[in-house]
Amino acid sequence: MSPRRLGDVHLRKQFPLMELGLENRSPLRDAHSANRLPQFVQAVFVDRDGTMGGTGRFIHPRDFDVYPFTREALANLRNEGFLLFALTNQYRISRGEATEEDFHREFEDLKLDGAYICPHDIDFPCNCKKPAPGMLLRAAEEHGLDLSRCVVIGDTGATDMLAAQAVGATKVLVKTGWGESSLGEYRHTWADVEPDYIAGDLLDAAKWVVEFSRQRGIWLGFIDTVKRGAFGIDDVKPLHQGLAPGLCHIVAAIAAKVPPDDWPLSPKMVVGARCDTTDHLDPGDYRDPGDPGDDCAPGRGHPVHFLVPLLVDGQETTFCFSFVLEGNRWFLRHIEAIVIPITHVPDLPATSFPDLPSATKDFMREEIAASERIRLWAFLKDRFGPGFATDWFKDGVGYALAARAWIPFLPPEQAFILYVCWEETRLRGGEAHLLELTSSSARISLKPQYLSVYGRATHLREQISAEDYEALWEAIWKDRAAHGGWQVEVKYETTGCTLFFTRPG
Ligand SMILES: [Mg+2]
Ligand SMILES: [Zn+2]
């Protein structure tokens, strides 16, 4: 396996990555905080009727039985350190059939940290009765919570899920109580909302929340590590060990362009398909000498991906940061800027597949071509020397011929210059400005894909130096120009180059 594409930041000469020195572990790094995994979830709000027990309808606390698994489920959540609150509508309180005190005693017995109870009658215009989010907002105020880091678990779509949705909390629907009918005959009452997870019951829900908080915590831990300047080679378990330094450089490069303080705290998260085999990877790449065995092999378990939109060099790019978890440690596995939008196998037979913007595809094609080109160049250089390798890529005869054949209406020298412009822009997706064209001189300011690929594709830098890459480019152009009737000089600029063509007038 030879991973061809890595992340996507301009790292060229203007970007002295090696000087950032982030590839090495900072001596200030606290060993105990290595890859620490903070909890994402701050608090969990649990509905009572139909979720903790009962039937979904009112049952007085003296007659209320929790489900057999409820105490275990609540304990699972409490053990993770989440605050635990009841979140319940009890309109019978307003009718004198029970008191708030009765309910509070019940919730204290369940060892909850508190309870938010709407006592108002069904028609009473309060802002606390679910689906109104009043109780959640009050809880946030009283406990300093970020509701986007809280979870609501309930059995009723039209109350529990809508209240959670209103404040951006994570939504878990349980199938007990009204759960099944919420998903069936009453689905229209909360049609626009999708639960983040549908659980069989509260215990299933609790297990999901525990895992969800760990997975989301990866991103918080990663940002924190980068912010402290503590991110290093020990924090990566790449797809291929050779990619480790490159990954560190990319993190450093992104952090230098977009401060981690500006990275979103809850980017879209995709939990990847379980990977039970590392057969396709180089054996030995993954095992530390002290590795007890397969259970610790990264690549096992579910990789967790975060899709993070960042504005880099004025261009919004979505980076996919992929991580693996080992016990309570996270490791960065990969960063990719181009993410093909395929997340599941389509219904078969399938004839249409998700597309990408054409500029993205232009870049990908050129990157693939560059990979093949440089792999061959490196091979030929090793076998037959640099001169031979470079000569192999001289295509001037065919290039000049193409210009004359495809633009037959102009003198060949002018056709050649215009063909250069056309090919670099329309065919390869680069940028060109034709600044001058006479019978004896021409000037093209160029942002060719050839050069931007080198800046953005880390793996190329491992195979060919910037100097050799540019020398190859120049050799190709001198050969093309010669066959087109010109001489050429290349002047490099920050993001491209200018080609100066001359010929005897
Ligand atoms: Mg309920
Ligand atoms: Zn109320």
Keywords:
505 residues; alpha/beta; Rossmann fold; Muramoyl-pentapeptide Carboxypeptidase, domain 2; 3 domains; six-stranded parallel β-sheet; four-stranded antiparallel β-sheet; 35% helix; 17% strand; disordered N terminus; binds magnesium ion; binds zinc ion
State the order of secondary-structure elements, H for helix, E for strand.
EHEHEHEHEHEHHEEEEHHHHEEHHHEE
- CATH class assignment of the largest domain: Alpha Beta
The bound ligands are: magnesium ion, zinc ion
The outline comes out as elongated
Q: Hey, roughly how much beta strand do the residues contain?
A: 15-25%
Q: Any guess at the CATH architecture of the largest domain?
A: 3-Layer(aba) Sandwich
The CATH superfamily label of the largest domain reads HAD superfamily/HAD-like
Q: What integer value in Å does the Rg equal?
A: 30 Å
What is CATH's topology name of the largest domain? Rossmann fold
Largest sheet: number of strands, sense, barrel closure: 6 strands, parallel
Overall helicity = 25-40%
Task: Please tally the β strands and state the result.
Answer: 14
How many distinct domains? 3
The helix/strand class is alpha/beta
Question: Strand order across the biggest sheet?
Answer: 3-2-1-4-5-6
